[in-house]
Prior knowledge:
Blueprint: E1 2-6, H1 11-23, E2 26-31, H2 34-42, E3 46-49, H3 55-62, E4 67-70, H4 87-107, E5 111-117, H5 142-158, E6 161-167, E7 169-171, H6 176-186, E8 192-193, E9 199-200, E10 202-204, H7 205-216, E11 222-226, E12 232-233, H8 234-244, E13 252-253, H9 255-262, H10 264-271, H11 279-285, H12 294-308
Parallel strand pairs: 1-2, 1-4, 2-3, 4-5, 5-6, 6-11, 7-10, 8-13
Antiparallel strand pairs: 9-12
Helix pairs in contact: 1-7, 3-4, 4-5, 8-12, 9-10
The structure holds NADP nicotinamide-adenine-dinucleotide phosphate.
Amino acid sequence: MRVFITGATGVLGRRLVKLFCARGDSVVGLVRSPVGEQTVIASGGEPHRAELFDAGALARGAEGCDVIIHAATSIPVKTRPRARDWEMNDRIRREGTEALATCAAKMGAKLYLQQSVIWVARPADGSFFDEDAPAQPDQLSRSAFDGENITHEAGEKYGFNVSVLRCGWFYSADAAHTRFFAESLRARRLPVIGHGDAVWAILHLDDAASAFVTAAAAPCSGIWHLVDDQAVSVREFLDYFAERLAAPRPWQVPAWLARLVAGSYAVDFFTTSSRTSNARVRRDFGWTPRFPTFREGIDQIVANWTVEGVV
Length: 311
Ligand SMILES: NC(=O)c1ccc[n+]([C@@H]2O[C@H](COP(=O)([O-])OP(=O)(O)OC[C@H]3O[C@@H](n4cnc5c(N)ncnc54)[C@H](OP(=O)(O)O)[C@@H]3O)[C@@H](O)[C@H]2O)c1
């Protein structure tokens, strides 16, 4: 199998390049800089330097590829992102997807894998939802939903399979948000907002990558939710993370106060529940997470950081 990956230098993409190469597949990774080229080479792939929004330039790199994966994102890592901080991410999800779908059509690819997010179908009342639930994207997930539709339409028009993998909240030792959480917990700068009883549907990045590779090896069309086996409350996640870091137990702030200080994005993230399941991806692909709950995932992260001397 020959695979073309956007976002090949990112937290998900780096894992994908390594896993595909370890299987004996050949991988071309889209990059934007000499550093990106070195990252892809170090992971075992071939870098292709091009602009994501230029379908012709993408196609020159994707020559001969039967699987195309869109794993590029630009999620703001600021504590208080403004609307304009999301603009590039929206462009990547809409215009980037269009360019890549055009490239997949030119290549005669068998499969296009789109990274999306479970939040496109999350009910506002926090109730359970699965892949058949009606989409109800909010302002931040609207572009992810648009990206899904662009790929579905292109797949139907040009005759390639489209697998949309909607991911829960990623965490890993190298993810910017996970590192930010750890640093903030240790500095007592990360409180629980509200009661802490909202639940997060999460996924260790190693498991996200293994699910993408499994799906790539079994081309078919559909939507799958990628989360671990057990949603976790905000309070439980942060308490356990703090305990493993030997940091103080996080304090609590009322949502109204946090909204003034941290803005509505942070408050919504901490106070809105996401309840979904990995039943369909387990059933259709036989995929199972190596880190079934946050406990195994956090233990691995802290163990890695201990070896690296980060904690
Ligand atoms: N489901 C989730 O919870 C979820 C989803 C996505 C991200 N995140 C989190 O958000 C944080 C930041 O994520 P991130 O996506 O910004 O970082 P990232 O995963 O480290 O990298 C994103 C990838 O997209 C590429 N990219 C960014 N802008 C691009 C553009 N304009 N054209 C082409 N490629 C572009 C980057 O390339 P360069 O190396 O050239 O910049 C990189 O390869 C991470 O902590 C991650 O875990 C969470």
